[in-house]
User: Fold Putative membrane protein YccC from Ectopseudomonas oleovorans.
Amino acid sequence: MPLASPLPLRPTRSVPRQRWPSLNAWRRAGREWARTDGQTWAFIAKALLAAALALWLAYRLELPQPSTVLVTVFIVLQPQSGQVLAKSFYRILGSLAGLSFTVAAIALFAQERVLLLGALVLWIGYCTRGAARYRDFRSYAFLLAGYTACLVGLPAVAQPQGAFLQAVWRLLEIALGICCAGVVSVAILPQTTRGVLRRTLAQRLRDFLAMAHDGLLGRLEAERFAALSARFAADSVGFESLRSASVFEEPYLRRRSGRLAALGNRLMLLNTRFHALYQLLARLAERPPAVRQALAPALELIAAALAPSLGRLPEERDLRRLNERLAAERETLMAAIRAGRQQLARTAPAAEVDRLDYDTAAELLYRFAEDLHLLLNTQLELDLPTSTAPKTRETFTPLASRAVAWMAGVRSALVVLGVGLFWIETAWPSGAACTLAAALISALASTSADPRRYCLQLAGGTLVGALAGGLLQFQVLPWIDGFALLLLVLAPVFTAGAWLITRPRLAGYGTGLMVWFCSAALPGNLPRYDADLFCNTYLAYLVACGVAVVAVSVLLPPSQPWVWRRLEAALRERLVHAIGAPLAGLSGRFDSGLRDLLNQVQVLTVGQPVVQRQLLRWTFLSLELGHAIIELRLEQAALPPLPWYREQRAWRLAIRALGRALVRLARQPDAANLARALGAVDQAILLAHQAQRHLEPTPGDFDRSPLRRIASYLHVIRTSLLAPDSPLAGYLPQARPPARDEG
Assistant:
């Protein structure tokens, strides 16, 4: 039987070989790595180079404590060159202040060590208070003033005769460390603050545009909006720190520092404007849809203008395109607002509240578009020559809690006093090291968002440093010879510490590892292999960490009910500031101060969601009311000198009475004061409407009628007071129309 014929073979297709990525792909990957992990490894390489240079010079110059030089290098070194120079400048100032105080204290109390310790304790408490109060580089100067005083003054408690020489040596060692860190940071792979500032601005604008787009279309949940607002507040504080450091870096940023400050303030103002608009739109969504439907075309117009810029970091051409579109859509927006007002009049002709809501929302939307246009103009003018750009004097005004700052200072002073007295009474050989470590840890913890967690991280880094230092000092150093081999064995520890410092959530471990490793395990010009001294020194550091943890947990902990009450009072006091403070620059001062308080609320209420929610409600109410009050004052200040706008008019007297009622409500929130404020705002709205109808020559033209705009701001105040999610909502059922306020 013949075999069956085989099936015909199909032609095989050639399978393409796996090729290497293209050259462009490698370039893109390289640029991405350079922007992310590459910067981290560049910082680590610069840290190793600066440490090697500083250590070689310290040994070559035979300085008494090379460890002080290395500690200075690792404290001063930062990824951006401007931050290194700023920290160096403030470290020198702080060190000079601390050394001057120490020499004066030793001259006064050289014969009595308890009085000398008491003077140092008071100085440390005051410096810690300053470090907690100022969250820019002034904080660093205060911290170093206290630390340097301890560095020289504590050894002088036992041996005052050598204090002046010790002060001179410490200053020389600190100056050497600062010079090495500064030279390496500026000369080797410099990372300028200019790029970081531009990237930070682009990220903030990208996130804000996405939030505004979703909010205008009704897609932004309240929880997400609150979280974004809190994050923007923290970003505002961080941006101001970067801007203040940039003046040390290059003339380009130094000449534009005012414009950068104005840009940060304009972004805060824009966020505030959108906050008021979002809150009003959220309240309108819970009512009949007539107002929201009439406003929808105008909202969609602005949202459509924002849409092309979403989803990526905006570049200059994107900003210019958006700016031109906003300018071109101005008349279209006004036409849409007029058409919506006519539509609302046809659907609900008798609803006065609906008309007020519409006018208020339309005014806020128009101002939002105008403020965004001004912000984009300011950002596009950054690169203009300073002679052609407009002059600006706006600054960020921080508003720290004095009570929290003094609490940190008192806690630090008590810790140092307790450890110092224990050292004096027991004659502990490492008592000075323990007291110095306690002072430094207490000061560092006062500047941290979570002091207890930071102290625990310092303790963990110190423990790892003790293990690495013991292994290095007693198993490795006796077997090596020469500076090159010393650098080789120190490099792994320095690399690990520098990497940890670049991670914000792990920075405490890096600080604990590097500071105490350099202090206890680094060999001096005359090495000492003393196991008892080494163990005693690291035991002193660990005891100091433990005492600091106990102090921030038990002794005046920062998260306490009285602290929260003080924060709430400070938030309410911002309303009083908006009502009575001078009007020049008030908007920027109000926004920056309130956002600084919001950042403190986020920090001091970690793990307390109920308290945090209540304080956030007060923050947002103060923001709404305060900004409406400021706009109301600005509108009155811009009134022309016409008879119906005179100070003696009934509607202006009613607005002043409203201001007094709001001051009472801010300082003592209760049902009676809320009722008085509601009655005052209703009276002011009524009189403003009467003046608009009977006195103003153009009562129907909203964009040219100051009284209609004033009525809309008064309506914002009224709706904020009546909001169901307001912290005043609990007083609404008891609020009754008050008797007429004659004051």
Notes: Residues 1-12, 737-743 have pLDDT under 50 and may be disordered. The chain is about 75% helix and 0% strand.
